């Protein structure tokens, strides 16, 4: 079936190594999202899978067959681009059926398949229009329809929602999820938007500088990030990362802030006295406490954002900037002094030098 396996894939452009020893196993029918900042190599990796870029080293298997040296048309994949890539002189029907026409499929088969996919995507009324007569969301659905008509082993999506406004992105995102649930075709989706990654992916691959930082389900990456980079990239608003050192008091280790205050740590961590760490806590995992509360953090409010459903409080602390998020509305103004306490079971601790997650002894 349509599994995709990458074995020690490298890609260099001259002296620049863009993809560095990437191995990845995407199961048949899985929706896998490649996510990372601009320039991390995610689109290059997708183009390598598609055959649009050659590998410098390593191999690619699709559906159990080595396709490393095959042309794109021989890989049984279909790609949806950011730019839609529709033929402007062709109608929606002609665009959607073009690949079948090139494959010399019978006209009646082409018409039947295009009609079926058009019904699936709500495009029946648009089949005789040209791309210039469509909205951005309609064009993207046509691009998806052109891919679906081919019934490939694998769908490849290269940032397909980047040209859409926020409301339309949410709508089309849901449509892609629904399509995958119906078709169950292996899908690989590239985005720099971690919200897209979290809401769409069954498996997420976080890339940085051409290397895989972590692979897992959305909640695995959110709850147990492998390092400070993944912790900072996954989650919105971003996780707070405070600079501290390890201090021992009353037989237990704590995080020592620059102002001398101590914050609680999960017990049993593999740390030592004086070790520099990154104390990470997500904005929704802090609470306001009284100033006398032990193991709390002194914070000065620098700004407040209230969206109606959520309240964001931005603070200055001895360990750096901190964001607190609340569902309940709290009477807080810029300039207020707060005492904040992290939920100890939600604290993440990373080595300040390597950024690696510090686990239990």
Automatic annotation (TrEMBL):
Instruction: Output the PROSITE patterns linked to this UniProt entry.
Output: ABC_TRANSPORTER_1, ABC_TRANSPORTER_2
Q: Does the keyword Acyltransferase apply?
A: no
Cellular compartments annotated = Cell inner membrane
Q: Which Gene Ontology terms describe the biological processes this protein takes part in?
A: carbohydrate transport
Judging by the UniProt lineage, the source's domain of life is Bacteria
Key word ATP-binding present in the record? Answer: yes
The record ties this protein, via InterPro entries, to: AAA+_ATPase, ABC_transporter-like_ATP-bd, ABC_transporter-like_CS, ABC_transpr_MalK-like, ABC_transpr_MalK/UgpC-like, Mo/tungstate-bd_C_term_dom, NA-bd_OB-fold, P-loop_NTPase
Tell me the GO molecular function terms.
ABC-type transporter activity; ATP binding; ATP hydrolysis activity
Report the main location listed first in the record: membrane
What is the similarity comment for this entry?
A: Belongs to the ABC transporter superfamily.
Which PANTHER family does this UniProt record tie to the protein? BLL2173 PROTEIN, MALTODEXTRIN IMPORT ATP-BINDING PROTEIN MSMX
Query: Can you name this protein?
Result: Multiple sugar transport system ATP-binding protein
Q: Which organism is this entry from? A: Martelella radicis
């Amino acid at each position: 079936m349509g599994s995709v396996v990458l074995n020690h894939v490298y890609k260099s452009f001259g002296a620049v190594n863009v993809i560095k020893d990437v191995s990845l196993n995407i199961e048949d029918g899985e929706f896998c999202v490649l996510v990372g900042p601009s320039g991390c190599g995610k689109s290059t990796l997708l183009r390598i899978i598609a055959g649009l870029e050659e590998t410098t080293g390593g191999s690619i298997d699709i559906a159990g067959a080595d396709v490393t040296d095959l042309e794109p048309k021989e890989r049984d994949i279909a790609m949806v681009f950011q730019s839609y890539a529709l033929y402007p002189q062709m109608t929606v029907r002609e665009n959607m059926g073009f690949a079948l026409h090139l494959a010399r499929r019978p006209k009646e088969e082409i018409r039947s398949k295009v009609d079926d996919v058009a019904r699936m995507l709500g495009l029946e009324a648009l089949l005789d229009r040209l791309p210039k007569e469509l909205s951005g969301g309609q064009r993207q659905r046509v691009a998806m329809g052109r891919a679906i008509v081919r019934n490939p082993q694998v769908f490849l999506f290269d940032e397909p929602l980047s040209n859409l406004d926020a409301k339309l992105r949410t709508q089309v995102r849901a449509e892609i999820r629904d399509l995958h649930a119906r078709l169950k075709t292996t899908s690989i989706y590239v985005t720099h938007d971690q919200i897209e990654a979290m809401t769409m992916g069954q498996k997420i691959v976080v890339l940085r500088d051409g290397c895989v930082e972590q692979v897992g389900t959305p909640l695995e990456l959110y709850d147990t990030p492998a390092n400070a980079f993944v912790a900072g990239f996954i989650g919105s608003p971003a996780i707070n990362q405070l600079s501290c050192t390890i201090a021992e008091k009353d037989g237990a280790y704590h995080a020592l802030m620059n102002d001398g205050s101590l914050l609680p740590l999960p017990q049993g961590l593999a740390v030592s006295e004086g070790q520099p760490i990154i104390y990470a806590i997500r904005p929704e995992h802090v609470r306001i406490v009284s100033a006398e509360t032990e193991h709390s953090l002194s914070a000065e409010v620098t700004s407040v954002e209230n969206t109606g459903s959520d309240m964001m409080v931005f603070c200055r602390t001895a360990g750096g900037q901190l964001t607190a998020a609340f569902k309940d509305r709290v009477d807080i103004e810029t300039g207020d002094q707060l005492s904040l306490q992290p939920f100890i079971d939600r604290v993440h601790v990373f080595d300040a030098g390597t950024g690696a997650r510090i686990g239990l002894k």
